[in-house]
Amino acid sequence: MERDSNNLFKLEMTSATVGYNGIPLIKDINISVKKGEIITLIGPNGAGKSTILKSISRHLSLIAGTVYIDGRNMRLMNGKETALKMSVMLTERIKPELMTCRELVSAGRYPYTGGFGLLTPKDREIVEKSLERVNAADIADKDVTAISDGQRQRVLLARALCQEPEIIILDEPTSYLDIRNKIELLDILSVMAKKEDIAVIMSLHEIDLAERISDKIVCVKGDRIYSYGTPAEIFSDSNISSLYDIKKGSFNALLGSIELKKPEGQIKCFVLGGNGTGIPFYRALQKKGIAFAAGILPKNDIDCVAALPLASEVVFSEPFMPITPEQVKKAKALIDSVSYIADCGCVLGEYNKANAELLEYAVKNGKTVIKSPDEIAETIL
Amino acid sequence: MMGALSKSNNTNTMRFCMVFVSFIILYICAVLWNIMSGSVDISASEIFGIIFNGDKTNTVAYNVVWKIRLPRLMLASLLGGALSLSGFLIQTFFRNPIAGPFVLGISSGAKMFLAVVTIAMNGFFSRMPLSVTVIASFVGSLLSMLLVLLFTGRVKNMSMLLVIGIMISYICSAVTDLLINFANESDIVNLTHWSLGSFSAASWQDVRISAFIIIPTVIAIFCFSKPMFAYSLGEEYARSLGLNVKIFRIFLVVSTGILSACVVSFAGPISFVGIAVPHIARMLLRSSKPIMMIPVTFVCGAFFCVVCDLAARMLFSPTELSISTVTSIIGAPIVIWLMISRRKNGTGQ
User: Which residue, A194, A223, A252, sits at the end of a domain?
Assistant: First the structure.
């Protein structure tokens, strides 16, 4: 079962079927990771991301197929051999009685220590180094139950690093963390992968972060791998929306951002924005559930990108081109149909001076002018 | 950095040595006090002469020391250590500090089997011989342990196993009560006496047999302190470190079962030692690393039981209390106090 020893892949999963108790959940999985690469599994809750990870880490046995480490069939490796190559960071909560963070991290030396698990000075040095790498040296003597979620995830990562693995498997390492801790943890991971040539396989819920950190993305949905490729190949608006079955909102692949559902119904307000000034108005209207139109926005304006998933109608102009009379006509027609106009106070220049004309037109036609997002709740009924 | 690192390592080892040596000294003091106390007054010098020189000039004193006090003391030490250690193992197994060695239904299984044997044997003996009691309860505990072991293979969730253990206890207790209902009062005196728990009537034979079972088991457990540490992180992490969790779980249940079955058969169910002693050891060590916990728990348990047995003998002398009465009265408040003080200090740091 030996494969070519010059095999490029650190870890390879070929035509694998995974599942619980012999019942297949996902079939025909082919994933491979080189050293220094980060592969991220994304997909809806319950799609089987953890099942795949647990099958790689041998917490679950494969129903079919093979996992190779450095071209060697994992089935033929014993627990210690695997532990020397691969470490894990799981979602399983650990609640040891009276254990310091340092002791927890030192458990990573298990495959290296002798019969009684006594640490040599070299082992201790590696424990300290691992703690420093995740910026947890200051909490080393604290009890594991007395630290925050963010600190705990870092300590668990230190434990995984302490095992000196060539492959690290992480199951949702960023869950429970606030945004700062998420970024810090992923930063440590990506530095580690590149500097020390560690292959990383993990699952993430934050698709925006997954796109930024990963070399390859695996989308898991249904009974198979939905799609597999580089972030650029995977991240299109429609692909992500259909992966997660998003119907009540949208995902913006360009910005990696998520928008809630578009307000429905009769358009009540026309927002005159531009250059980012419109966004607070769009958000306020979306929260109140008021349908609105936005314009006139150049296609490359941030307001235009933000308005597309939220506004019922967007009147846009071509990038770096003046507004055309047809566009003005379209906007005027929309203004005629609403009773409110929002003046976001965008700077008016050569390309968007038509917006000033639109405001004048609205005032002349007796439309109520809203000048701040705070007024929306009181003014529009 | 290196300074801080070696310091923290040294304090751990220092603490362990201090706690371990203190308990050995305390244990020796308790042993001396225990030998000297009793209804027959024997002076310290006489005892010294009897033990080390085999001085038989005072036959009564010689017999009291050699045939009554010493075997009882040895048995209390061995069983106390074994019971505490089995408590530590079961707490490690369930990762639950409140679990005790008898949660797996071991003591109630023993009691049920003993009740069956007592009633069945009623025609053969006018009074149950002690050896039959010992064998019956040992077999009973092992049977309930095997039953639990059958479930260990199937149940993935530890708390489920805990519930199963408790349910087995209930079933065994119910069957025991049923049997007692149909038995004559006089037939079950032995059973009632047994279920109170006591170290009295210990013989050298008992000491030899229990030492033969307990000492190798304890050594084996100590040799497994490394995987036990890995196991305390949780099964999934332990497995990822290369530990064969399935086999290790069986080892834990079997060694716990052997230790507590041994205790139950020689002294009856002794409450609270198995829960309280590991707690005391853990708090003093400020760590739950098995390599330190195993020796400290054993010595601490021996000390605790020797002191409790002394109290059981002497407090209301000549009336002797059951050992469980004393261990509960001393043990329960200690657990409560430890729990509260641990909350207050945060985490022992």
Answer: A252
